[in-house]
Amino acid sequence: MASLSAAISHSPNSLAHDTKPRKNYQSQCRSLRLPRRSPLFRMGFVSRWGSRETTNARIFTSVTDVLLDESAEKVQLPKGDTWSVHKFGGTCVGSSERIKSVADIILSDDSERKLAVVSAMSKVTDMMYDLIEKAQSRDDSYVAALDAVLEKHRSTALDLLDGDDLGSFLSHLHDDISNLKAMLRAIYIAGHATESFTDFVVGHGELWSAQMLSSLVRKNGMDCKWMDTREVLIVNPVSSNQVDPDYLESGKRLKKWYSQNPSKIIIATGFIASTPQNIPTTLKRDGSDFSAAIMGALFKARQVTIWTDVNGVYSADPRKVSEAVILKTLSYQEAWEMSYFGANVLHPRTIIPVMQYSIPIIIRNIFDLSASGTKICHPLVSDKEHGQSVESLVKGFATIDNLALVNVEGTGMAGVPGTAHAIFGAVKDVGANVIMISQASSEHSVCFAVPEKEVVAVAKALTSRFQQALDAGRLSKVIAVIPNCSILAAVGQKMASTPGVSATLFNALAKANINIRAIAQGCSEYNITVVLKREDCIRALRAVHSRFYLSRTTIAMGIIGPGLIGSTLLEQLRDQAAVLKEEFNIDLRVMGITGSRTMLLSDMGIELSRWRELQKEKGEAADLEKFVQHVHGNHFIPNTVLVDCTADSVVASHYYDWLRKGIHVITPNKKANSGPLDQYLELRALQRQSYTHYFYEATVGAGLPIISTLRGLLETGDKISKIEGVFSGTLSYIFNSFIGKRAFSEVVAEAKQAGYTEPDPRDDLSGTDVARKVIILARESGLKLELSDIPVENLVPEPLRASASAEEFMRQLPQFDQDMTKKLKDAEDAGEVLRFVGVVDLVKQKGVVQLRTYKKDHPFAHLSGSDNIIAFTTRRYGEKQPLIVRGPGAGAQVTAGGIFSDILRLASYLGAPS
Ligand SMILES: NC(=O)C1=CN([C@@H]2O[C@H](COP(=O)(O)OP(=O)(O)OC[C@H]3O[C@@H](n4cnc5c(N)ncnc54)[C@H](O)[C@@H]3O)[C@@H](O)[C@H]2O)C=CC1
Ligand SMILES: N[C@@H](CC=O)C(=O)O
Ligand code: NA
User: Fold this and answer.
1) Considering Cα of 675, then 680, then 682, then 687, what sign does the dihedral take?
2) What is the 3-state secondary structure (H, E, C) of 796-832?
3) Looking at CB atoms within 10 Å, which of 291, 318, 389, 454 has the fewest?
4) 10 Å Cβ neighbour count for 252?
């Protein structure tokens, strides 16, 4: 074989067939005192002394003559489907150990024929560029740097090879290095390296790794040849970072090469190629993948496997979405859409050569051979069948940051041909890249996204281009720039043409409270693009990803106040989580628990069976702001709910802000709804305007369906005249149990012990708790009342109202037992019972809370334990037959159950199946 570039690199193959260097070349070498075979003369460096074209042409013509002799035409390559092509990047051949694994992979592929494309060992390409850089800038250290390159390959070869193979490789390596030394010296003198010079120097990394690997495969007893792809792969440069393969010419050369090197295993150099004039060049960015794809196409291989360090193509950037999954298959179009958006897939260029012949590309992890990777191919027939779920039509999501939207708006645009031309002409003039365009059919505005760094120039160009239209008032809003934007794209073949996909996407964004600035969907049907504010981008990505990939209703929860109710809720969540996930697809994850002193945060969800232990081990100082930021902003789940299980009005004062941020709020805490009226009204108005939910069923009657019953009546048009009831579990228990056998204070202690009371039982005995419930129901029914508008009978003995603490109060209460015993006796004497009731009178528009007496046959007289009873008198449920809800209205289990059912209501609002 007589390839020039192979001769330069002194490969074992090429040496055997080397042509004699031409006389002219030898004499040039002598006159410059360079090694006889110095590639400098072949690379155009001599153009400084003569014409580069002529020198190159002279040298290369002889090679071409040999390559393209007649017989090449007659050679047939073995049948395509017998070939399996592999590509191993720099990290795959980064050390002798890794090169051994690569050899094992090649050997274990049971295809009849195999071609492996290899990159330079990791870091070598950079080392080679650095050599050039150093030599050009006359930095002497290039000599030491070249020694490091030599040493890296020498020691790797010593590890891998022995005998003649080792001797031969090392001798050629030393020759190459001395040639490179001479070239670099010349570059040093000239202070300049041409592009082809650079490409030639840099390409050595691939030559050496291909030679070592092929020797290693041979050492395993297999027939194997290495291929310098510069002899075969012919490309035409189209721009500084792009080349077009010449398939016809490359095919001819491949046949010729193969006729001279028939082998069942070929190790080919990636990245490097030649121009039609046989000048060494490279395939530029992602060159080795491209080499493998071109080789696959030239051989019409049965598949091309790209070995890398990830398990395949992810459904979204796993650094942003920790639950991103590896996609099993992607169509060619989907793969290039994903790669455009920065997903670590293949360069779109790589896909085209193999797509023409329907050759599948498989992306696999060299470090995890058990993972089957991602297969990129034409959509499988089964995928095309009907009945696919909307979810499966979206393959992945990608984002682009640092964009700005430009909006050109005005009346003078509609129906005026040439407006778009003028706009984008101006953009082109400043060399900006338009990433997405959207124009509504009214034609009054065009908006487009450009990289943020280009937007100032774009705006300036547009202003000057449209100055006249602006002055004349034909463009009204002129050029508005919206900075700090990002693009979120959903990719999936056919998704855009399937009803429901975009609705699902936009719904997920709406539910995560994300505002969309612009939308574009090409009729290619592979991609739906939305422009959002940059700060929303990751949350949006997670929202849509989880909508399509996670359970439809994955909810991140933050529990505030793990006291009696909060901790009982955590137990119930622990016991029910698996059933909810399995049967209802509801995935509830407690990402944080905070008390007033300590908080526990988790990135994936707290293990609820040992949250107390974890809190002791990993708890940190409570900080509500940090807590909320963590639960809402710091993870992959789009829906956030904060469950306030405190009785704290400070915590309640944050609801407005949380709802505004799109955080759902669920609470048994009555403080927000019974606090200042204006704040309540603002809170409810905000909640009604947004997709954010605020549920508080447990604030009245604990788990009993009081709020929901009232809502049902109101929303279906019933007219309520009165709501009357025993609203306090504590006071119900007290008056149901205080029947003369035990002292009043003893019964109060029992209620506290049973978990019915407020954290401070005086809130119950004072009637405040009932008043709060009355206010909540009154406001829910439309009355605009303040807590102070409700007259309340206070059962806390006057001297104890100012006691320092709840404990102090409980200690002193027995001193006042007599007062209550007297009230009880008076009632009994009259054949009545004592009941502490609340009333909302919607006719008189007022409320009242008091201790009343009821006849022993009244429904309120037949309560037991912590029963609440609430009677709704309405137009449909008249005075004599009110709608009655009755049952335990306090206690840990029923209250936590009420909160839990609000959480499930939220899940169903978010789309959980019923
Ligand atoms: N006990 C019951 O039967 C019912 C209670 N509720 C309501 O449930 C809520 C909780 O009641 P319990 O669990 O009985 O009270 P609790 O006193 O046992 O628990 C409240 C917890 O909140 C914590 N806390 C207080 N302020 C906090 C703050 N700023 N940040 C973080 N944590 C804070 C406390 O340290 C405590 O752990 C109250 O609002 C109560 O009105 C509602 C219906 C029934
Ligand atoms: N302390 C309250 C608890 C429920 O709101 C009561 O006793 O009803
Ligand atoms: Na309730």
Assistant:
1) positive
2) CCHHHCCCCCHHHHHHHHHHHHHHHHHHHHHHHHCCE
3) 389
4) 18
Domain spans of the chain, in order of start: 4-308, 396-535, 553-698+901-909, 707-890
Pairing of strands 374-377, 329-331: parallel
Q: What is the mean pLDDT of residues 561-580?
A: 95
Q: What tens digit of pLDDT does each residue of 688-724 get?
A: 888 899 999 999 999 999 999 999 999 999 999 999 9
> Which residue of the set 256, 284, 752, 773 is catalytic?
773
Q: Of all atoms in ligand 2, which is nearest to the CA of residue 730?
A: 7
Tokens 């709501």 sit on residue:
723
Average pLDDT over residues 157-180: 96
Whether residue 595 has its Cβ less than 6 Å from ligand 1: yes
Q: What's the CA-to-centroid distance between 836 and ligand 2, angstroms?
A: 12
Which whole-number Å values give the CA distances from 384 to 393, 394, 396, 498, in the listed order? 10, 14, 18, 12
Say yes or no to pLDDT of 882 above 60.
yes
Residue ranges near ligand 3 (ion) with Cβ within 5 Å: 697, 701, 704, 706
User: Are β-strands 265-269 and 113-118 bridged in parallel, bridged antiparallel, or unpaired?
Assistant: parallel
Candidate of 645, 704, 763, 772 to mutate for ligand 1, largest count of ligand atoms within 8 Å of Cβ: 645
Whether the CB-CB separation of 203 and 272 falls below 8 Å is answered with yes
Return the ligand number nearest the Cα of 901: 3
Pocket perturbation via mutation, ligand 2, pick of 671, 673, 728 by most ligand atoms within 8 A of CB? 728
Q: Which residues line ligand 2 (CB under 6 A)?
A: 702, 728-730, 756-758, 764, 769, 889-890
Percent of the chain surpassing pLDDT 90: 63
Which ligand is closest to the CA of 647, given by its number?
A: 1
Mean pLDDT throughout 803-830? 90
Q: What is the mean pLDDT of residues 59-74?
A: 41
- How far is ligand 1, taken at its centre, from the CA of residue 811, in Å? 22
Of 320, 181, 227, nearest to 11 by C-alpha is: 227
Task: Identify the nearest ligand to the CA of 892 by its number.
Answer: 1
For ligand 1, say whether the CB of 759 is within 6 Å of any of its atoms.
yes
Catalytic (active site) residue 773: yes
Distance 564 CA to ligand 1 centre (A): 7
Beta strand segments in 158-311, E: 225-227, 235-239, 242-245, 265-269, 272-274, 280-282, 303-308
**Number of the ligand closest to the Cα of 870:** 3
Could you read off the pLDDT of 338-376 as tens digits, one per residue?
A: 776 555 567 778 888 999 999 999 999 999 999 999 999
CATH of domain 4-308: 3.40.1160.10
Question: Are 721 and 882 within 8 A, CB to CB?
Answer: no
Residue whose CA is closest, atom 27 of ligand 1?
596
Give the pLDDT of residue 330: 87
Tokens of 390: 């909307």
pLDDT, tens digit, for every residue of 730-754? 999 999 999 888 999 999 999 999 9
704, 750, 757, 836: residue to mutate for ligand 2 pocket, most atoms within 8 A of CB: 757
Judged by average pLDDT, the poorest of 186-195, 437-446, 464-473, 682-691 is: 437-446
Q: Looking at the domain that runs over 396-535, which CATH code has it been given?
A: 3.30.2130.10
Q: Is the CB of 567 under 6 A from ligand 1?
A: no
Checking if the pLDDT of 73 tops 70, the result is no
Which element (helix H / strand E) includes 365?
A: strand 361-365
Q: Which atom of ligand 2 is nearest to the CA of 895?
A: 4
What is the residue with the minimal CA distance to atom 4 of ligand 2?
890
CB 333 within 8 A of CB 525: no
CATH topology of domain 707-890: Dihydrodipicolinate Reductase; domain 2 (3.30.360)
Least confident of 63-72, 196-205, 332-341, 469-478: 63-72
For residues 599 and 615, give the distance between their C-alpha atoms in angstroms, rounded to a whole number.
Answer: 7
